[in-house]
Each structure stands twice: as C-alpha cells, then as structure tokens.
Batch of 3 targets.
Target 1
Amino acid sequence: MSSTYRDLFASASDGLRLYARDYGLSGGTALPVVCLPGLARNSQDFHALAEALSMDAFHPRRVISLDYRGRGRSEWDSDWRKYDIGIEVGDTLQVLAAAGIEKAVFVGTSRGGLITMALGASRPELLAGVVLNDVGPVIEVKALMRIRGYVGKLPLPTTIREGGEILRRQSGDQFPGYTQEQWEDMAKGTWHEQDGRLALSYDPNLMKPLEALDLDKPMPDLWPLFEGLKPFPLLVIRGEHSDLLTVETVAQMQERHPRLKALTVPGQGHAPSLTGDAVAAIRNLIAEAETGADASP
C-alpha cells in the first residue's frame, strides 16, 4: 500500500468485493472528490491528481478513486453481463456509503463520466460539481470500434517497458507526443505483477459486452442525462486527438449548460491524463463548487 492512500474495501449488493483508494484526511470540511475511471482502467489512473488534491498545502481534501468490479483490485464477476453501467452505478453507491461520503465533486473519465451522468439523474444530491474527462452525451461509433478492437485482446508483455511498446503501437495516433515513461505509466494501469510475472489488470470478459453491441444501430440518446448536470458547475476536458468526444459535441454541450467550462489537452487523445493544466482546471472547478463563485482567472 502507498503511504499516500489507504485501501478501502466495500461489498457490492450481490456480495462482490469492491476496492477503492482512499487519499487524504477523512474528516474536515473540504469537499471530497470521487474519481471514476474508464472502461478497462482503474484507480491508478488518478494517482497524480489524487495526490495533488489530497496533499494540497492550502486546501487538502479527501479523494476516493474506484476500481469497478472486474478491474484493478476489485473482484471479477463470474457473469460478464454484470459489467454494466447500471450495476456499476450501484457499486459506486456502495463504495460511497462505506466511505461515508454524502456529497462530492465527481471526476469521471470516459465510462466514469457516463456513470456520473447516471448519478446526476438518480442521486443528484450526491453531486456538488462534475468533471467529464473526454466523454459527453454523444459517443462516436468510430471510437467504440477502436476500443472494441483491443479490450481483452492485447498480447501479454513480459516487462512494463514491453507493455508500453504494445500500447504505443495500439494507440500512438491518439498520443503522438507521449514519451516512453508516459507509455510505461499507462502500462502500469493495464498490467500488474502477479506471482513474478505480469497479469492483465481487468477481466478480459469486459470485451463481451462490447462485442454484444450492435454498432449499426443508433447509439442511445444521452442528452437527457446530460441535462441533469445543469444545476452543477461542470468542466469538460477533451484530448485534442480524441475520437470519442468531438469538438462539435463539446460546442453543443456548452450551448446547453450555462456553467460549463471546456479545456482541450494538446497532443493527447482518448482519454487525456489528468496532469498539468488539467489539475489546475479541476482545482478551479472544485473551488467554484465549494463557494458558488467562478474561481477561474
């Protein structure tokens, strides 16, 4: 376990064991932050952001970063049909109850953003502010086809360096400026060491719900869910090369949400890492959620 976070375990409603990283002090008056990762990602993706927020010299706050069922250190489900956003919403609520969190700023990357929008519809009292990282109410089919092409299908590397090379070959067009170190950081969230060798950090059966999708049919209309975010300050982060969240969709989101601020991360695609300018923008969003006033320069 890291010295900057505690292990938090909770039980899903069906008894599955769920895991989250718990950063910072559990008491205090500062709004906590809840981080929800992408489809095949896990709590490690938010480590830099969680440390920055929980160890802030002036406004330290608690940060909870989740592993959904079948990812990271949460248990895998024997029924792949339960790798479903509706069930993952329920799992998120179970973790929040175990953590004693009644209101927070939610940072959702990709699938985590969809879960956040679903929470806005079903449990709006939980939300104080929202960060959508490279996701919106329009999901591009091209991106789903790309994601379906590699989830659960990557070769198993023998080293993290080799894993970084695998990811670079797979997603280099999304992140043309990534360094070897950045690819290896991404690899550390894709594989982990187990019994002296690397193992996949998610259940490969995550591919099955993707394969079951009929991409020739129209995608579900998620604009009603997005409308549920209107009461809250909202930051939308988009990777410059993203194929899942388009510039046009961000413009439509801005038209519909009067308090939306948008940030484009140059040189990155789906989904951009939450470092540098993104951390500063998230801090401003949190300050706005706490005070009700626009905290941007």
Target 2
Amino acid sequence: MSVAPSPTIVLGDRFARELGEMALPWQAEEAPDPRLLVLNEPLATELGLDPAALRTPDGLRLLVGTLVPEGATPVAQAYSGHQFGSFNPRLGDGRALLLGELPGAEGALRDLHLKGSGRTPFARGGDGLAAVGPMLREYVISEAMHALGIPTTRSLAVVATGRAVRRETLLPGAVLARVASSHLRVGSFQYARATGDVDLLRRLADHAIDRHHPGAAGAENRYLALYDAVVAAQASLVAQWMLVGFVHGVMNTDNTTISGETIDYGPCAFLDAYDPATVYSSIDAGGRYAYGNQPVVAEWNLARLAEALLPLFDDDQEQAVAVAVESLRGFAPRYEAAWTAGVRAKLGLPEGLDDAVVRALAEDLFVLLRQDHVDLTSVFRALGGAARGDVEPVRLLFLDLAGIDGWLERWRALAPDAAGMDRANPVYIPRNHLVEEALDAATEGDLAPLGQLLEAVTAPFDARPGLDRYAAPAPQDFGAYRTFCGT
C-alpha cells in the first residue's frame, strides 16, 4: 500500500519582509488531535498543492499552522479599523496568522492564512480560537460566492483541532485555512497612517499597487490611481452582493479589502424574503450593516481610506482633500452602472434598452417583492420560466396579483432572454435554514448534510434532480434568523 508523501510547499514572506512594522512573527497553538473535516481539492490543485499530501498527519499540521515550511515566516498582521463606526487604532490578527504567500500564475501571489489558530498579542482578551460551526460557515459561503462569480477569499480546508472552545457552551474547535490575493484592508492603511510614519504608508501603498492594481504604477499620481482602483473594485463588489441578496453583516473598515475580494464571513447570510432593512447579525442592534445600507457603508469606508492616504495624494492638505473627494464621487456612478448591468442580465433585458428603463422596471419589481415578502432567489429564477411563457410559478409567489400581472406584461413585452437569465440567476444559494442544519450536524460529527449542501451551492446555476430542497425557500416555521461572529 502506497503512502502519500508529506506536503512540499514553498511559502514566501514578502509581506513580512517589506512591511515588518505591520507583521508580528508568531506561532500557531498546538492542536491536540487534528482531524480533517473538509478539503477543497480543486483549489489545492489550482495552488499546486497535492491533496493527498494535505490529508497526511504532516499535511494536517501544516493546515493548522504547527508545521511551518522551511523558510516561511508566519505573522499576525497589524491593522486598525472602524468597528460599527468607532475607531480602534490597534486591531490586528487576534486569532489568525498569515503563513506566507504561495506563487501563482504569472507571478501573482496568494496568501495562505489561518483563522482560529490561537491567541496573538492582538487578541484583546479573546481566546484566539474558533469553533467548528463558524469555520464551516465561512467554507460554505465563501465557496458559494466563488461559484456565483463574486470576488472572494477562498477556503482551502477546515481541520478540527481536538480542543474544546467555550462559547455559550463548550464546542469543538477548528482552524480554517483560507486563500486570498492578499489580506490588505482599509484598516491596514489606517494603521500605517496612525503611526505617523509616511514612509511606511508609502511602502504599504506601493505593495498594494504591485499586488493588486499594477495599472496605477504608471499614472501621474500613482497613489490617487490606487485609490481610484479600490473605489472601482468595491463599487463592483457591493453591487454583486446586492444582486444576489448577500448580507455581509460586519462591514467594518478592517473587513474592506484593497483587492475588492469579500473577506471575513462572520455573521453573514443570504436574503430570504426581500427587505432592504434585513439584519441578520446578532451584534448589529442599530442596523448599521443592514442589506440596503451596504452601498452607503462601502462608500463611508472608502472615505476612511482616502483620509489615510491624504499625505500621499498631495503635499498640500487642501489639494489632497479636494482630489480625494473628487475620486470618491466616482463610487456612486460606478456602483449604479455595475448594479444596472447586473439587474439587466438578471431580467434578461437587451443591451440596447436605456438604463433608466432597466432601473425603473427593476425598482418596480423590488417594490412588489418587499410588499409581499417574496423570496429573492426564487422569483428571479422563476422569471426564467416566465420568459418562456410559464408565468404561474411567478404569480404564485405574490399576493398582489394585479400588481405582478401588470409588471409581467411590461417586462415580457421587452422579449427577455430566458437562457441568459438562467446564466445570471442561481437555483441554489446557501439558504440560511440549510446552512444551520449542516453546521449543527457537523458539530455533532455528521458531515453528510455539509457535503450535500456544498454539492448544490458550488454549481449554483445548474438545476439537478434530487436537489429540490436546496432550491426551496425557508419553511414558514424557520422564524427570525440571527447569526453570530463566533468569537
């Protein structure tokens, strides 16, 4: 019987070398009895890693951070952040470690990062650990987002540690290994600015340009061009969130990436019944991060990034503020353009149709959805059938039949493209009741529901027999839904 070799992996330490003031060398805590819960084999292969080797004892030690490849420098990253509007100058990776950077295609780097690997000096009183449920939530939802075509960090593996974690009760502990184009955040720039070290701020900006927005390097004002690129990336990202009904739940500046990837799937969820006021996070009592507020919050976070970058925009403070304000004004039209293009595709409307007509038609539909508490994912997928002539599944979702009949008549007169709609509207998303079912079962040791859910949501646009329950809205008795950060 052949035995899989131990993993051979080369990890760079570019962040630690170039930005040592923001990188605290640290070691993951020992995991008493590591056990693999789920491994993303396609992602491992894409990264040049051997899935069989990752399943070995040494592979599991790598995935929980206790076996560090030769030459790697695991670090806890320093960053600041506005959390629910209040500034904390020193947050950082309290329960996470950047193991290092993996080389990718055409020289691009990918961070290999751990979550739940133990306390660091940034832990601020927390235990630095994570429970199985929240780590599997990030795995499921980040992989679903990737399958939906939305920029995101990826999940490589979740490994149970064999250590109990105390929350409301004792829960089994786990470590998530995730991959990102980087973990640079708005909060990273806030930290550099708060130090008063303009050279550090400039080196951080140059690092971000090189890793994420190289087109900015040749601009007359490279740092303003970097900012413009981040504004554009975030406008596009949040528009995509809104189009699929994703609620991030904790849009602090330390969870807003420079790359434009979705990061930190804590109290996140997808809409069931459409309502812009929807809040799922148990800690968002004021509704700051409600679904409908996400574009406004993203713009607010980008204003904080502009404040951090002001010394690089211009030596003259007033001129720096003026160019920052002008650049930030670009967020709203970029967001609107991305949202309009997305909703045009979801409604199957032709490219030549005026944007104002597209927006008006969509907004009228959303009024009906909110009024009748209609499931967002179900109605858009059913509209594909209505474009083919079968309107009854759509009508059955509404109480206001006159309203939806009038809307359907206007929409069908525009000859929507049914096949295009099927490519834009998922059948399967990580529905909240199914996510909770899978996480509860996994916490008790049963991984079968998790595997079935992943099968559905990682191919979200392809309807398949036997997966009907993964396309169905939440049952009436599911009740009010709340999610938790897991810390």
Target 3
Amino acid sequence: MKPLSATDNLFLMLEKRQQPTHIAGLQLYDFPEGAPANYVSKFAEELREYTQPVAPFNQRVTYRFGRPYWKQDSQFDLEHHFRHVALPKPGRIRELLALISTEHSNQMDRERPLWESYLIEGLKGRRFAIYSKQHHALMDGVSAMRLGTKMLSTDPNERNMPPIWAFDLKSKSSAGLTNRLDATTLVAAARAGVRNNLSAIPHVAKAMQDAWRKSKTDSAYTSIFQAPQCVLNDRITGSRRFAAESFSLARIRAIAKAFDATINDVVLAICGSALRDYLLDQNALPEQPLIAAIPVSLREDESIGGNQIVTILANLGTDTADPAQRMQTVRASVQEAKQRMSTMSQKEIMAYTALMLTPAGMQMLTGLMPKWQAFNVMISNVPGPKEPLYWNGARLRGMYPVSMPLDRLALNITILSYYDQLEFGLTACRRTLPSMQRMLAHLESGIEGLEVAAGLNHARRNEMELAW
C-alpha cells in the first residue's frame, strides 16, 4: 500500500456534495476512414477486452489508523468504470454537453478506483466522444491531459492501441505529469512555500511592502485587495454546467501580433469580454474590474514531483466596453506582474506567492471573510499537442478540459491548445451561474471585437458548431 500525499488527501477531505473534487476531459473523434455505421458498438466490445487496469487505475482508497492509502482493488469490475452510452436524437453537440454536465455533477464511489470512462455514440456527422473522469486525488488535470494524449498516435494507421486505463505508463516517457493548475493546489503549494522558503522572507517582505504602495499609485498593478464582490464568488451547489468551444489559433495569433501581445494576453482579454457580456445579461456586472488568477509554471526542465507553480493576478478590464482598451489593461497588468517576478529568485517567487495567497486560500476554503475576495475567477491556459492525433485510426478533432469549480469560485475556465485550435472548457455551478452556455457566444464576440479593433478581417469558424 502507498500512502496518499498531503495534497492528494486534501482533495478527499475537501469533497462534499456541493463540491465534488474530480476533473475530466472530453475528446471528440471522427470515425476512421471506411468504418461501418456500427463502428462504435464494435469498438466498445474491443475496449471491454481490457479487463486488467494498470496503476493508478487499479487502486482504490483504504484507511489504516485513520490515514488514507492506495490499495490495489482485488474486486475490480470494468463494467462499473467503462460505460458505453448513446446520445438522444438528434445527437447534436447540445445533447453531448448536456450529458457531460449531468455526469460531471455526480460523485464517484470511494469503495472503487476513482475513475470512470464513457464511450459516447449517436453524434451527428460520423463522430463519437470519450468522456474520462478521475478524482483529483488520483490524478491532476494536466497529468490526465498528457496521459490522454500520450496514449494516442500521430500515425492514422496504428491499431491495437489500448484505452487509458490499460495504457502502460512505462511505455512512453511520463516526465512532467505532475503540475497542478487549480485553486486548491495553490493553497497546498502556498503552505509548502512558506515552510520551505523562510530564508527568502526578508526580501519578500520588502517586495510585499512595495506591492502595497504600488497598489495605491500604479493603475497597472493588481493586488489581492482589488477583486470586487461578484456572483462568480457566491456559494455553489453540486449541479454542473459544462460548455466547450474551439477557436482558430490563427485568429488568436493575428490579434496578438496586431496588439504586440502574447497569446495568453489575448486569451485573458477574450475571457474578460465574455465575462463582461455575461454579467451584463445577468444584471450582475461589478463596477470594478474582475481579477483573474493565472497559474504559471516555473519548471525549466522535464523533472517531475514537487510544486513549482506560482500565480499571478491579472486585471480583466471588465469595467470598459472598449476591446482595445481592455487589451491594453490586460497586457499592462500581466507585464507588471511578470516584471515584479523578474526581480526575484525562484525561491523568493515561491515564498512571495505563498505569503500573498495563503490568506486568500484560507478564505476560499473556509469563507470566514465572505466580503473579501482575492480574485474572482481562475483561468488556466495549458499547451497541448501540436500535431493531429489518432486513436486506432479515429482522428481526434477536439479535446476539452472539464474542470472543478470550488465554493466561491463558481466558474473555472481552462484553455487547451491542440494543433491549430484553442479549446475552451468552461465548468460552472448550474444554479449560481444560470445560462452559462451563453458564454460561448460571448467568447466569439470577444474575438470579433478584438479583430475589429485591430483592423483584421475575420471569419467565424467554430469547430464545435454549437446551436444552443
């Protein structure tokens, strides 16, 4: 038996009905060339032959003297974990995302290994989908994404490729599978940062003093004391709404070039625009601009293990209707944060982030100071595969992260790049943020607004073709 790490155990401790602590991914595939109409049913039969899962998919949680351990499940039942389902007609993306929203609301059985995989047929256009769900104690989102792509191939002719639960981790390099990019992990990382980096405290104390002073005089400076009260930070329920959309990476690059900005700057500006429009629809837009927390990795090699994640705060410019001004606000805010970090060593950056975000993390988890919100939303931008991928001849058309909202962080936006696309995955509390799927149209409007402001010609080209 292997004991759970303190961070992994934290995800078990935090889980409650209104706050399931699992994450997932949705993959959309084309049928292989020449595949028959009953291809998915036959494929399901093939996948059921993989009855012996590999670690960690064969591990379940057990307790010994009150401490949690991973233990191999001696009564593993594949039928419980692998499920072949069909969408109701007409099999649009609308029906697919409704199914994902429902399944993502359900907690998993802790008496079994904490994962589920759904093979979904009935999609229009000779397509099928895979929804893979795992508890955050078992695997973090970046690890799941990387494992999910490592099991695929760039060769459309490769066959006999196993499903994720039977994929041998040792068959390909698994370097770098441990970065965690979510709010709860930042709390654990912050605690470790304070404990392990005490030698940096004198320099960090001066940096914090300077930060407090600059927050009063520098409009580009973003601090933990600026986030306004917002419906995004209300209490949540266990019901989820998931929405996803693909956008052309070429469009985003063109905007970035026009504004002399990074792709991440553009993504943040697009999210700021969409959040502004959504909150205006709900008559809930704060006068002050929303603040986003953006996880950033400091890892400079392919090593694994440990926490090397810091967080910067960015002003999303939601207080202005001008796309160009919003872009300038976001860019200046991110540049200021990067400049601040550039004057510190890596150890000092970790300690600085720890000291700044530990109070915010405790507030997020305990709610003892409900009128203080360090940030309003978390936005993660994760680099993904740069080439088209295939699974047993089926081309992967899109891969969308399904994230984990937390109490007082009712919306999680995660963006993943794949080949020539940016894949947006939005996961929210269904009750706290009603009609959240409208954010997809607002994201497109945000891109178009920036294209107009930059003088670019644009052509709407959304791969998901959502019709809500």
